[in-house]
Amino acid sequence: AIVGIISVPMTLHYLGAERYGLWMAISSFIAMLTFADLGVGNGLFNAVAEAYGKDDYEVMKRYVSSAFILLASIGMVLMLAMLLVYPWVEWSSLFNVKSPLAVKESGQAILVLVACFALNIPLGICQKVQLGLQQGPLTYLWTALGSVLGLVAILFAIKLKLGLPWLVAAMAGVPTLMSLVNGLLYFGWMMPRVRPSLKLASRIDAKMLAQSGLLFFIIQISWPVIVASDNMIIAAV
């Protein structure tokens, strides 16, 4: 909340009304992709909690391994789809921007944001494991750290007079980097017994996680349609 209070007036002043509106519209666009993991992340959260209740770390490691491979595949497909459609979409018309600078930056900014989002799909697995193991405060500590460091990166981008794609990279890339660091430390040092392993990943476990995450998937679709679509509509109008 504090990061938002500080960053909004600074970025609005730096970017101007149109480019700031572009940033908000792009942020809403990426929020509407929160269902892209097909509910697998929340399915893993339930599976880890159940295995933890039974003190069965072998089963837990199987689930984590299968979920990681599945989520990494989803992230790769999402990024590949973005690269395929990117040259064919007139992003400036989609976000209704007119100035030459905003037109130039619109496609670049959304490409950066989708790339960060696609990377964070498999990297976010560590947070689901921590929540399933009742280690939520650790997850939220890394999330808060990512937000604060993201704000610092935004301030540097403004000081260096960088464009909107760089601000997007600061806002979305730094929290993604913190997810990576969290995962490396957690699986490498704190909980190596549940570290993802390619050998333990199985199609059966992946299918189970996808099925258990189906209702979460429906909820994930509903939320961005209700909440995150406003800015897209405003931008179009």
Task: Give your account of this protein's structure.
This protein has about 240 residues and is mainly α. It is about 80% helix and about 0% strand. The chain has twelve helices and no strands. It has helices at about 1-15, 15-30, 40-55, 55-85, 90-95, 100-125, 125-130, 135-160, 165-190, 205-210, 215-225, 230-235. Helix 1 packs parallel to helix 8 and helix 6 runs parallel beside helix 9. The model has no long low-confidence stretch (mean pLDDT about 90).
Mean pLDDT: 89
Portion of residues in beta strands equals under 5%
- Tally of contiguous helical segments: 12
Low-pLDDT segments, ≥5 res: none
Give a quick account of the main beta sheet: strands, pairing sense, barrel closure.
none
User: What general form does the structure show?
Assistant: globular
- Strand/helix succession: HHHHHHHHHHHH
Distance between the termini: 28 Å
Structural Rg: 19 Å
Query: Total strand count, please?
Result: 0
Which structural category do the helix and sheet elements fall into?
Answer: mainly alpha
Helicity level: over 70%
Secondary structure elements and their pairing?
Blueprint: H1 2-15, H2 17-31, H3 40-53, H4 57-85, H5 91-94, H6 100-123, H7 125-132, H8 136-159, H9 164-190, H10 203-212, H11 214-227, H12 229-236
Helix pairs in contact: 1-2, 1-8, 2-6, 2-12, 3-4, 3-7, 3-10, 4-6, 4-10, 6-9, 8-9
